[in-house]
Design brief:
With 287 residues, this protein is α+β, with helices and mostly antiparallel strands. The chain contains 7 helices and 14 strands. The longest helix is centred in the C-terminal third of the chain and has 18 residues. 33% of the residues are buried.
């Protein structure tokens, strides 16, 4: 396979120009943004690229940037414009003295672009399942077939404890809503195909959402997770995922702790007698 050239290395990443794509390999190191380290590498087909730009950067640098087509990358689709400049996976920062070389690659790459307008499907691969991360109020996991939320008694609201741990097969989802913890209060909400028509509750009250801040579920963990779920939903459609077989048995110590916390909610008047009895029986059935 013929190549445009070889490798162009810059700050935190190196771009390898191939005949049909650009392979971006991210460095590992203390100064490399954690999102880049989590991604590892990304292959961007030429058909996924809308434009290539070269502009002056800060402190004697230039910036070579790929602009993906709308809808081509599940990561950017999930991010919905919330990524900070330093976390943009498609910026390559180079010393100003390499501007002529960067211009060459920009022009060569522009000549090979074939796509225009919104992409009809994701063209850049999403992070692969299984994935998981710890939010403030629970642990989120995705095995490629369903998303599970397991609530933490130290952070979950009484509404989520009443609802219990959640499992959402892909077939019942239409998408995801991700909010960056770097901008305000972060959350990941699963959008379901069937709803009762009411407005969604606040994320900390919604059993279909987990909430997080800078210390829980940061961008480099929650965004790849959201992108993977979004890509699986779009790729699979309503009949793609089978509901997993019976859930595994739970740790008795964990069940005991959850019953204890449920009792605290009951004593505080946040859970009725009927809700307490029903939820306790549900937890005991998991032993």
């Amino acid at each position: 396979m013929s190549r445009m050239g070889d490798v162009l290395a810059g700050s935190h990443a190196a771009w390898e120009f191939e005949s049909d794509s650009v392979l971006i390999r991210y460095e590992r190191g203390l100064r490399t943004p954690k999102l880049f380290q989590a991604l590892g590498e990304r292959r961007v087909p030429h058909e996924a690229i809308a434009a290539v730009t070269l502009s002056p950067g800060r402190r004697g640098t230039v910036v070579l940037r790929i602009e993906p087509r709308e809808g081509a990358d599940p990561l950017l689709e999930a991010a919905a414009g919330q990524l900070k400049e330093g976390s943009d996976p498609y910026r390559l920062v180079l010393p100003a003295e390499r501007e002529t070389l960067a211009e060459y690659y920009r022009d060569e790459l522009r000549a090979r672009l074939g796509g225009s307008g919104p992409a009809g499907e994701f063209l850049v691969a999403a992070p692969e399942a299984p994935l998981q991360f710890k939010a403030y109020d629970g642990k989120a996991s995705f095995d490629g077939r369903s998303v599970r939320f397991r609530w933490f008694w130290t952070g979950a609201s009484s509404a989520k404890w009443k609802a219990g741990d959640q499992s959402f097969p892909l077939a019942g989802l239409s998408g995801v809503e991700w909010r960056s913890p770097e901008l305000f209060e972060g959350h990941l909400r699963l959008l379901r195909r069937e709803t009762d028509g009411t407005e969604p509750a606040q994320a900390d009250q919604d059993p279909a959402a987990v909430v997080f801040g800078l210390g829980y579920g940061p961008v480099h963990e929650s965004l790849p997770f959201a992108a993977a779920v979004l890509a699986a939903v779009r790729r699979g459609g309503p009949a793609a995922a089978a509901v997993p077989a019976g859930a595994p048995r739970r740790d008795p110590a964990d069940i005991a702790e959850r019953i204890r916390h449920l009792g605290e909610l009951h004593e505080a008047g946040l859970v009725t007698d009927e809700e307490f009895s029903a939820k306790k029986a549900e937890l005991l059935a998991q032993l």
